[in-house]
Automatic annotation (TrEMBL):
<keyword id="KW-0762">Sugar transport</keyword>
<keyword id="KW-1133">Transmembrane helix</keyword>
<keyword id="KW-1003">Cell membrane</keyword>
<feature type="transmembrane region" description="Helical">
    <location>
        <begin position="317"/>
        <end position="337"/>
    </location>
</feature>
<dbReference type="GO" id="GO:0015423">
    <property type="term" value="F:ABC-type maltose transporter activity"/>
</dbReference>
<dbReference type="GO" id="GO:1990060">
    <property type="term" value="C:maltose transport complex"/>
</dbReference>
<feature type="transmembrane region" description="Helical">
    <location>
        <begin position="59"/>
        <end position="81"/>
    </location>
</feature>
<feature type="transmembrane region" description="Helical">
    <location>
        <begin position="122"/>
        <end position="142"/>
    </location>
</feature>
<feature type="transmembrane region" description="Helical">
    <location>
        <begin position="380"/>
        <end position="400"/>
    </location>
</feature>
<dbReference type="InterPro" id="IPR035277">
    <property type="entry name" value="MalF_N"/>
</dbReference>
<keyword id="KW-0472">Membrane</keyword>
<feature type="transmembrane region" description="Helical">
    <location>
        <begin position="216"/>
        <end position="240"/>
    </location>
</feature>
<feature type="transmembrane region" description="Helical">
    <location>
        <begin position="271"/>
        <end position="296"/>
    </location>
</feature>
<comment type="function">
    <text>Part of the ABC transporter complex MalEFGK involved in maltose/maltodextrin import. Probably responsible for the translocation of the substrate across the membrane.</text>
</comment>
<dbReference type="InterPro" id="IPR000515">
    <property type="entry name" value="MetI-like"/>
</dbReference>
<dbReference type="GO" id="GO:0042956">
    <property type="term" value="P:maltodextrin transmembrane transport"/>
</dbReference>
<dbReference type="Pfam" id="PF00528">
    <property type="entry name" value="BPD_transp_1"/>
</dbReference>
Amino acid sequence: MALSILFAGLGQIYNRRYFKGILFALFEIAFIITFGEFIGLGLWGIFTLGEIPGVDHSIFLLVYGLLSIILIVFAAVFYIYNVRDAKKQAQAILDGWIPPTFKESLKAGYDKTFPYLLTTPGLLLLIFAVVFPLMFAISLAFTNYNLYNSPPRHLVEWVGFSNFTNLFTNNLWRNTFVSVFSWTIVWTVVATTFQITLGLFLAVLVNDVRVKFKKLIRTILILPWAVPGFVTILIFAAMFNDEFGAINRDIMMPLFGLEVPWLTDPTFTRMVLIFIQTWLGYPFVFALFSGVLQSISNDWYEAADIDGASRWQKFRFITLPHVLFATAPLLIIQYTTNFNNFNIIYLFNEGGPAVQGQNAGGTDILISWVYKLTFDTNNYNMAAAISLIIGLMVSIFAIFQFRRTAAFKEEGKL
């Protein structure tokens, strides 16, 4: 073990596992030659983010540093495995174990490493497509990277928790954050609850034995799901246009003599957005609940009829528990999805209308606000800070709710 700590593979060679020892040693030598200089530059860059404006590019140095950290983690995992392997083999030799031949070693190594060989490409893709971008976004949340402080002309600096402090101390950022966050919560809860309630109501209604032509009705009710969401949103945006939209021109004016400011008043815009999301979201919930309802045995309802149960009691104690038991995790996903539902907010009115004293629109939710901060005003640091807050909130909510649904694994605990 001591030899393997000194240099990878020496312990295996001492244990007469020559092929494995040479392979480990070559791997360490190749790693040092290939990545040694890069890791040195990366570690220097991530700590300093550059020293000479116009020459050092802080963002590139940050990227090099994050990649260096990932490479160091890979090397540490390999080195720990190398040391533990040497110690395990030495202990086995003391217990009388005889090292296998080269051919036997190859066969045993292939059998043991085959699952890892299959999963390694997926692991690497996950690290560089998910973990690395996440690390980069988190890092930006602790810098002053914005439009007026962009490399290579300027150097980016580490500012600690200043961005998060500004969200709650600076009047502009605080007012905007409180307003956007409040609307995001209202939007998530109300819009999702409406689509779930409507989907459940229609599923129970269509599933009633007295309803005829069930297949036709189900097909009609699922049709909104068949139309691409962005097409539906753009059509509704045109229909609710204040000046030439069909709602004002053909309905509100002829019948009530009113021109409702659907796109210029935040309250009316929010009402329309909730209506559109209910229209877009209920077909999936309806299809989901319809399948669950058909799996409930009629014997339960017949027994309830014999006991004199009312329709409400049968729904409350038979239908609803079964539906929630089967669909609770998917319903939670509906809430977390709408929390970050960027498409409908941006496509309908780009988060508008504008609100005085804020740098976000009247219907912007957190994710659409982050988009504007990133691509419209280039406030990368604040966008990253808000994104980190969004990620924490969604993760905590999802983990909490999924842990709660663990109680539904046994139907008797409903």
